[in-house]
Amino acid sequence: MAGKYLFKVWQNGNNKKYYWNAKSTNNGEIVASSSQGFASKQSAIRNAGLSGFKP
After folding, report:
1. How many helices, marked H, and strands, marked E, lie in the chain?
2. SS3 state of residue 13
3. With bands split at pLDDT 50, 70 and 90, how would you rate the model's confidence at 14?
4. For the residues of 23-46, what is the DSSP string, one character each?
């Protein structure tokens, strides 16, 4: 899947948790995202890796 999506990790300003999503480079559609917030950026990246995405 390399090169076919844009990967993003961000921190929610309200609850200070980290989330991730992966968008298709073809149509900008979100193809995958975190279902929960994570305490650290590293945890969010690890979760994305378990879902098959590598930032």
Report:
1. 1, 3
2. coil
3. very high
4. EETTT--EEEE-SS-BSSHHHHHH
